[in-house]
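Q: Here's a chain of 288 amino acids. Please give me its 3D structure as tokens.
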Amino acid sequence: MASSAKPSSVANSGASVGGKSIAANLLDVAIGRFQWPQGALLYFLPPERELLPDRAIRLSFQAYLKFSGLAYEDVCALNADYMSPSGQSPFLVLQFGTRPIIFSNFFQLVSFIEAQKLGLGQDLDKKEKSEHEAYISLIKMSLLSAMEYDAWISKASRQETLSSYSHGLPWPLKHLVPYSQYYKYRWNHWGLYKRDEASVLSEFNDACNALSVHLGGSRSFYQSGPTALDALMCGCVEAILNSSSQKLKSILSSYDNLVDFCHSSVLSQRKGLQFISSPSTANLSSNQ
């Protein structure tokens, strides 16, 4: 079950972890001798507040860490987005004594882990790595953008999004915060906001088709085993199939191999991956 722990504050610069000073640990990162710290924490929102794109990224975080064999603990918090320095949820905290390294971006985490030679892409050749990056970019631009559009711009689900943002907030914040977030999103994603739904869905379908062709009948995108692409695709597929987004779900469900891939025994048993459901806010402590 997910913990209710909170991130530690930045404090004593003389602290150490694993018998080494923080400076020594950060030097190890710089020169490529990084070791995954104990007590890594993945913070995320409960289902009542977790939007579709946030859920996809959270599941991608979980899949990538599991596939990589990197230990962490799930922490479900009602105010996870306000706890994050970037205002984004989910976010991962790697603790070095009292000095945390925080990742609120899945793609930054992947780049960091791969640079430390701890990730999943070490067995890919140069051509495969280039192709791998291209498909990840395709998912970012098409699948994740479609989920963002569905959550924030589509008239069919906009009210559900506003309701999610208001959940658990006292009056008058429950009326002010959702609309503040909506207009903030609209301002920051004006290009997506100006697009019509048909073009977004068409691009989503084209991306699913390209990924389906690339996967073929295999149980992972590359013969060497799961990569960040597999983790990201797993997160997106799982989130969409268990969402209320009927249009995205209908398109994705037409690609049987993508659906089967997400729940394949090769992926789920190889690293013991289990997608968890966020605890209900009713089970969270009132002081979160």
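Q: Can you summarize the key feature?
A: Residues 126-270 form a domain with the Glutathione S-transferase Yfyf (Class Pi); Chain A, domain 2 fold (CATH 1.20.1050).
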